[in-house]
Structures are given as structure tokens and as C-alpha cells.
Amino acid sequence: xxxxxxxxxxxxxxxxxxxxxxxxxxxxxxxxxxxxxxxxxxxxxxxxxxxxxxxxxxxxxxxxxxxxxxxxxxxxxxxxxxxxxxxxxxxxxxxxxxxxxxxxxxxxxxxxxxxxxxxxxxxxxxxxxxxxxxxxxxxxxxxxxxxxxxxxxxxxxxxxxxxxxxxxxxxxxxxxxxxxxxxxxx
Length: 186
Hints:
The structure is a single chain. This protein is mainly β. It has strands at 10-12, 21-24, 27-30, 36-41, 50-61, 66-72, 75-83, 88-92, 106-107, 116-122, 126-131, 134-140, 160-164, 166-177. It has a single domain (10-177), classed as Exo-inulinase, domain 1 (Jelly Rolls). The protein is built from no helices and 14 strands. The protein has a 7-stranded antiparallel β-sheet with strand order 1-4-13-6-7-8-9, with no helix packed on it. Strands 2-3-14-5-10-11-12 form a 7-stranded antiparallel β-sheet, with no helix packed on it. The two termini are 13 Å apart.
């Protein structure tokens, strides 16, 4: 999805107060915004049965360095990595409760300047997410209302990656359609 050289297939998300988006040395850098900086995928993307994976690193700041917004059937949600002061991981939103207040809420100590492999898998019944090899989210969504947290993040649909008052770097962005059990997207 990202060639490491250009923003081909992407465009800057039109957040008010956004920071600069740069492509340099094979990285997609989202410079700190006030509050958001992000990119949107400009090509078609599936609504269900997909897996996306990429490396992300916090370069500056102390909040989420990855807000990955994806479709889930006829709705959308965001995987938040490093939110609420730097350590929160979760899905926003499930049954109108954001990543800090639902069953997906986890806390991880993210080091500044370290790469993390982020992987998200969405099927009709489940949302699963891994950080490196640790499966942190495994939630049955069959009887849940999946939605975005109200606010500016809504302009990240249908598929976008954003950072909140944080500079982040992204690389090796890939996705695939799936129809079976969780495998590996390297």
C-alpha cells in the first residue's frame, strides 16, 4: 500500500491544525499536529474480511502514534495505539464506548523511537489486533454496535491512519483479503 517513495494511493487527511506529512528514507512521517495529522487511502478498500499490518514508531509526543480507522461492514472503527497519555490500546468504539472504556482496553509501555508491528484483522464476527506478536484484542462483534468515536477522527474514513499531538513514522503498510483463520501478514 505504501511504496516508500511517494504518497501514491494516499492523501493528507484534511484535519484542521494538521502537521506536515512527509515521505523520507522509506518512511511515511506524520508530523505533530494540533491535534491530528493523518493520511487517507484513496483506493478501494474492503468493508469486511481483511487484515492490515504495518510498522509504526512514536518519534515525538506522548499520545497515540497510530489511530487506524477501518471499515467494519457498514460502519467504521479505529484501533488506537498509544492513546490517553501514551499507553492505551483499544478499539473506538464498541457499543458507544471508546477505546479507554470498553472490553478491548489494554495498557502497554511504548518506547519512544522503537518500531512496533501493528496488525488488525476484521471479519464479520471478530476484530483482532496484535502488537508485535502479542494478540491484545480479540473481540466478538456479532452483537455489538461498532462505530467511530464522534469528532474529527470521522474524516479518516473509510481507511486512514492518524496521530494525535504526536509525530509518528510508518513503514511496510500492507493489506490482504482473508477468508480463513488468522495467519501471518509480514
